[in-house]
Structures are given as structure tokens and as C-alpha cells.
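Title: Prediction job returns without error message
Component: structure pipeline
Severity: low
Priority: P3
Assignee: unassigned

Description:
Job completed but the reporter wants confirmation the result is attached to the right record. Sequence as submitted:
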Amino acid sequence: MVAALPISAMMYWFTQCAVAVMAAAAVMEAGKRPFDLFGMVVIAMAAALGGGTLRDLLLDRTVFWVADQTYLIVALASALLTFFLARLVPLPGRLFLLPDAVGLALFTVTGCKAALLLGTPWLVASFMGVITGVMGGVLRDVLCNEEPLVFQGTLYATAAWMGALVLIGLLKLGIDATLAALGAGGLIFLLRMTALHWNLGLPKFRAGRRHPN
């Protein structure tokens, strides 16, 4: 029987997985444009590390990939592997949405948990989770000269925020930290995939038409 990993180790590996899948998703999304290998790697690094970098800067702590270069190595390896795999096997254009949803869930949970460990208030911690989950995707889309997913279309940041709040609530209730993380991450993933399937989104602002005088 395999012993359960301590929560610190679990969160570490959650973050490594998030870095890997976000880098892969970025390469698949950027593959719609004729970027070279260097361009792909830059976009993948921004997507995989950008959200956590902003979170750590806001929380005034050492940026996670500076403290542990393993994250850089994982992001680079995932980007290169996906790049060369995509050259050999045609990948569906929307395939990146699946790893992107996984990365969103993993990064939101780990970002929220990291903020809680530093003693930040619950609302701040929930937004740190959202920032960690979505900002990498924003950077990816900006570098690809596309409108960021988080600003339009189906539920994205909202799913992340709901999952972060659920995580905080479960921890407040005394639920095991690992189970709480898995439950909140699973909720984010299911919300995101449900939103994609049913095209669920928030109401959009539409300015009233101006009538001629």
C-alpha cells in the first residue's frame, strides 16, 4: 500500500503538473500561428509561470521558479515535447482546452493554498488563486495576439473563483487538506468543461444604442 504524500508534497506535485499542462496547452494554442521553436517556448513559459509569478510578487515572496528551477525545467520540457509531438501527429484545434482546464484547476488550488499558508485573509487568498490560475492564460493569449479567454466566452475566472472559495470553505470546516484540494480542483475542472459543453458564460455588457437627436 502506498503511503499518502504530505500535503506540502502534494501541493508541490500539483504545481509541477500545472506547469507541465499549461505549457503544453500554450504550445497547442500557439500552434494556430506560424511561430518558430523559440516563440513557442517563450509563450509556453509565460503561460506556465506567469500566474504564479504575479501571485508571488503581490504576496512579496520569492518567485516560485526562482526558488526552485525545477519548474523551469518542467515547463521547458513540456513545451519542447508538445512542440515536436504536434509536428508528428496532427492535433485538433480545440484540444488545448482540456489541458488548459486541468491547469486552471491545479494552479487555482495551489495559488489559493499558498496565500492561505502566508496568513492572508480568505478573500485575498481566493483572488490569489484566481490570479495564479488565469494570468498565465492571459499572457499566452496576448502574446498570440488573441482576445484572452478570461475576458469573453464561457466561464473561466468565475469557475476558478468558485473553486477557490469552496477550497477555503472546506478547510474552514476541518476537511482534510488533500481532500479539500482535490474536491475544489475537481469542481473547477467540471465547471469549466460544463461551461464549454453548454456554452455557459456571464452576461455581457452591451451599451444602449444611441438615438439621433
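Comment from assignee: result matches the submitted record. Confidence is low (pLDDT under 50) at residues 1-5.
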